[in-house]
Every structure is written in structure tokens, then in C-alpha cells.
Inverse folding.
């Protein structure tokens, strides 16, 4: 199911983004800063997650004029967010020609029961996940890239770490199970057996596995890469800091040299104060973005 | 066994490592100038050429890569082809200039224009590897708009060169590392 040519081309772009940093931007000026700093792609959105959290209201797909302006300004891939289940926002983004659509919990969900049928699109999708079952359900719907949800706009890495560790642990566990146990596991994970078997055989997701949600420093980026992320998304962490350009450059360096403490030291040294951040335990259940989607 | 570096600053370096292993070479990830020592050849993978350039400049790797390419074969795919060219357009950007080529970035359009094509290689390619069509995975691919007098086109698609050899170097605008057919990597390994 997941190996036809259309799907391979979708996954192909995610392969090209490995080892890199995808940065949230709200306008062309920020997109240019991101590209100059070495971002592999930019994510266009109306407001960065930290502002969505602060200002509240309904968070929707970014204004088309802004996305178009960003697409004209940079030569790297441009992604944009659509609300969970809002397949018409996704259709509009596809018609616009964005390179990836993020069906994102950061925006206000449009459907509380159904995610987008992503197989019906030519544009590839990335989706967030907190655990293996969620990741495999999104892949079954057609997602060509998975990212941890983390807790967007918090500047706190703890949730991204939890989600990456959970996914990795659940994948490792599958590799030691027998055939009949995988059938039971598929039921428990609420994910198709075919995908569960793929993970059991390879120890990996059938699509690239990135990390997002709370990455604010080069050390954060290196940490999630060490835990198995193949690339990172940075949202509020860059443009909510005192030093967006230097921080963007430093996080790009950290994603490449995540295994080299000396290089990470150099990357960290160039920086000022990061975004303030939030203690997740101080958030109400209703304020969490990661519980959106299922 | 030949040792082939895969430039691992960013991009699909793991897919290349797997393809090189299938083609009978030993892949080694290269992230710093010192990693280039004792390699028989180098692959510059697909990815974002702008990101790779930033990191190469920051790490002072541009000149060492040019020097490496004056002695040893380099195989560039997609972003790697852009980096090996002598001239890059749309937009213009710095490159290593190891091959006399003009490459236009993102020339097919955006991701929705990415595709899997089936191409018939030139007889020379078939003679040096195996006969038969080749799968070509194009991802936001560049187009080679001009090839120098010393370049040999091994595969063309829609009239444009997509696999080009010039002396010891080889470039593809598609991604043989994403296909199960290892002939392109075998050809490169045979040049080491």
C-alpha cells in the first residue's frame, strides 16, 4: 500500500530533509533569515505557536498572500499548516503548490473525529504523533513523514523527548515479537497489521521520523537527534528568542553535528537568551496542544 | 573494498550509504575535512544545496572538497549535482566548479512536479553496467541546461541530460539511491 510511486516521491522529499532544520516563519522576511541560516525548509503559518497560545482564538491556515510571498522569496521547500481534518484547507494549499502540508495540532482542529485522507492528495503530508499507534494511524491515512508533537510553543523539550522515547521504545518492543503477537499488538496500537509488521521487521517507521514541539536550543536539537529524530522542526524557538539569526545558524549546526560535543559547544557559545518557555505541569489539560488529534 | 565517503552534512546520506554497500563499496559518513583522508571517492547526496553550502563554508570545507575532487572521483545527486557544477542558476549560487555544467535549480517546478520516470540509458551505460531501462526518481530536481565539451551524457530524460560523466566525476539530477537498481552506484564504484 505504502510503496507506490506517488508515495515514494512524497517520502523522497522527506528523505532529502534529513539531518536538517525546518523553521516556522510567518512572513517573507523571516523566511529569508531562515534560508540564509541554512534551514532545509520553512513552515508557513499565521502565528508561531507561542503567540497562538498567548492570544487564543481560532488558529487557521496562514493567509495565502503570506504563503505566496514566502514561496517567491526562498528557493528551499515551503510547507504550510492545515487544521486537523480540514481537507479543504489542504486542497487550497495543494492548489497553491506548497511542497508539504502539516496537518497540525497547533491549529484549531476542524474535525474532532476524522483526520484528512492524505492518500487522496498529490502533495505530501507530515503529521504529529505522541506514540507508535498514532504514528502508524497517520501513515495508514497517507502521511509521508512523522514528527513528534512535543508541546508546541512551550520552549520546553520535555514532551518531545517523551514522545520520541515512547515511539522508539514501542518500535524496539515490536522487533522481538512473534507473528501472532503482532496481530494482538496491531489491535492494541489500533494500527494496520501491515504497518506493524513493517516496524517489527525493520525497527523503523516506513517514513522518516522527525521531531518537533519545544526545541529552543542547539542542545535541544542534538538531544532529540540522539534519541532517534532524523531532522528537527523549530517553531517559536527561533523567532521568539533575542537572537533569531544566530540561533537559527546554531541549531542548523547542531542538527548536523549532534554527535560532536565540541561542535555543539561552539554552536551554543554564539548565543544569547533563548525563549522564556513554559513549565508543562503548570498548563491546564485544556491548554495542551498535543492532545488534539487521535 | 573501496572506501567511499558520503558527505553527511545534510540530506539522504543514509540512502546513499545503503546503495554503496549494495554496489560493493564500504560507505563512510564524512562531516569534516579530516574525514576526507584515505577515501577512494566521495558521494555528495541529495538534500538542500543551500544548507550544505552554508555548512561547508562554516566548516571551511569548500577548498578541501575542490582539492579532493582534483584527485578522486565525486558522484553528486540532485543537490550534489548542483554543488559540482561550474554554473548554477535560478537563483545563482556558489558551487565547487568541478564539472563544466550549467545547472538550473528546481527546474521542473515544486514538489507536486516530482515524479518517478522510466528512462532508457545510452548504449555506453548499458555496455558498462547491464542493459535495461532505469528508474529515475526526481525530487524537486534541477535540470542540466548545458554540458561542457568533455562531458558525456549517459542518460537523458525528455531531451535533458540526467546522468552525466566528465572525467572521474559523475552527476545525476535524479536519485538512484532511492531505487533498488544499483547500476548507477556500480558504475561509480567501477571508476574508483
Amino acid at each position: 500500500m505504502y510503496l507506490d510511486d506517488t508515495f515514494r516521491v512524497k517520502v523522497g522529499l522527506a528523505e532529502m530533509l534529513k539531518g536538517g532544520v525546518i523553521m516556522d516563519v510567518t512572513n517573507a522576511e523571516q523566511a529569508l533569515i531562515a534560508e540564509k541560516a541554512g534551514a532545509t525548509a520553512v513552515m508557513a503559518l499565521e502565528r508561531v505557536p507561542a503567540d497562538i497560545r498567548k492570544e487564543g482564538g481560532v488558529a487557521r491556515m496562514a493567509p495565502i498572500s503570506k504563503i505566496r510571498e514566502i514561496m517567491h522569496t526562498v528557493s528551499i521547500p515551503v510547507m504550510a499548516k492545515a487544521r486537523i481534518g480540514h481537507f479543504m484547507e489542504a486542497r487550497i494549499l495543494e492548489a497553491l503548490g506548497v511542497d508539504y502540508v502539516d496537518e497540525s495540532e497547533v491549529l484549531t482542529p476542524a474535525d474532532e473525529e476524522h483526520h484528512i485522507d492524505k492518500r487522496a492528495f498529490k502533495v505530501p503530508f507530515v503529521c504529529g504523533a505522541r506514540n507508535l499507534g498514532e504514528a502508524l494511524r497517520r501513515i495508514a491515512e497517507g502521511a509521508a513523514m512523522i514528527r513528534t508533537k512535543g508541546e508546541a510553543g512551550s520552549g520546553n523539550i520535555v514532551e518531545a523527548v517523551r514522545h520520541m522515547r515512547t515511539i522508539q521504545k514501542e518500535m524496539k518492543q515490536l522487533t522481538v515479537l512473534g507473528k501472532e503477537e503482532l496481530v494482538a499488538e496491531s489491535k492494541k496500537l489500533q494500527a494496520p497489521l501491515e504497518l506493524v509488521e513493517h516496524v517489527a521487521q525493520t525497527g523503523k517507521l516506513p517514513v522518516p521520523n522527525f521531531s518537533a514541539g519545544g526545541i529552543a536550543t542547539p542542545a535541544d536539537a542534538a538531544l532529540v537527534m540522539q534519541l532517534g529524530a532524523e531532522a528537527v522542526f523549530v517553531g517559536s524557538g527561533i523567532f521568539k528568542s533575542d537572537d533569531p539569526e544566530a540561533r537559527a545558524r546554531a541549531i542548523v549546526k547542531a542538527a548536523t553535528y549532534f554527535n560532536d560535543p565540541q561542535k555543539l559547544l561552539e554552536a551554543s557559545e554564539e548565543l544569547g537568551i533563548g525563549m522564556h518557555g513554559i513549565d508543562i505541569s503548570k498548563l491546564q489539560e485544556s491548554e495542551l496542544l498535543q492532545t488534539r488529534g487521535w | 573494498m573501496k572506501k567511499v565517503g558520503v558527505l553527511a552534512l545534510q540530506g539522504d546520506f543514509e540512502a546513499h550509504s545503503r546503495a554503496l554497500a549494495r554496489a560493493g563499496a564500504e560507505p563512510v559518513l564524512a562531516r569534516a575535512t579530516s574525514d576526507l583522508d584515505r577515501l577512494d571517492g566521495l558521494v555528495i547526496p541529495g538534500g538542500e544545496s543551500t544548507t550544505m553550502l552554508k555548512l561547508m563554508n562554516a566548516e571551511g570545507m569548500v577548498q578541501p572538497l575542490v582539492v579532493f575532487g582534483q584527485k578522486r572521483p565525486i558522484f553528486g545527486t540532485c543537490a550534489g549535482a548542483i554543488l559540482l557544477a561550474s554554473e548554477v542558476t535560478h537563483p545563482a549560487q556558489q558551487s565547487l566548479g568541478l564539472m563544466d555544467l550549467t545547472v538550473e535549480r528546481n527546474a521542473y517546478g515544486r514538489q507536486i512536479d516530482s515524479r518517478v520516470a522510466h528512462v532508457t540509458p545510452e548504449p555506453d551505460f548499458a555496455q558498462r553496467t547491464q542493459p535495461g531501462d532505469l528508474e529515475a526518481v526526481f525530487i524537486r530536481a534541477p535540470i542540466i541546461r548545458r554540458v561542457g565539451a568533455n562531458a558525456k551524457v549517459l542518460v537523458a530524460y525528455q531531451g535533458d541530460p540526467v546522468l552525466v560523466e566528465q572525467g572521474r566525476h559523475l552527476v545525476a539530477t535524479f536519485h538512484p539511491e532511492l531505487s533498488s537498481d544499483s547500476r548507477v552506484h556500480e558504475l561509480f564504484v567501477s571508476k574508483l
